[in-house]
Structures are given as C-alpha cells and as structure tokens.
Amino acid sequence: MFSDNLISKEDLIEYKELTDQNLKELDLAKTQLIKKLEECTNENYTLEMGNKLKDFLSLKDLTSQVLHSLVEKITCNSQGDIRIHYNFVNSFQ
Asked: Radius of gyration over alpha carbons of the chain, in Å?
C-alpha cells in the first residue's frame, strides 16, 4: 500500500506501531491463558488423585488388584537395587 502511494509514510508507521502493540497484547494474553490451562490441568490431576487415594485409604488390606492399579512395574538391577515405577507421579523421587 505504501509502495503504491495509497497511504503515507506516517500512516504506515502508525499502523505498524498499532500492529506491534496488538501483537504484544495478544502474546501476553496467550501466556496468561497457557498458565491458566496448566493450573487447571494440575488441579484436575490433583482432584483425580485425591479421589483415588480416598478409595485406597479406606482399604484394610492391600490386594493384588489395588497393587496393580498403583504400580506399573517393579525392576531390580544386578546390584540388588529395587525401583518401583508408579502409575502416577511419585513426589518422593
């Protein structure tokens, strides 16, 4: 448009500044939305884990069904070190 002499150089600069400002605002909004999405995901994970734990805390015996729902696998290396791979994030690691 500028090269075709449809708008002036001042109008082009003003338009560019407005566009840059809009991009900054959109980028900020995007960052805030991503942060909120992560918070919601973490909150949902926490709620789901809490509900599962409520069920397990009321159990008096550890059955194989309960164990299999909590543990993905157990490995042991040649030095005898045992590692438990949980089906959830283990905050103790």
From this structure: 28
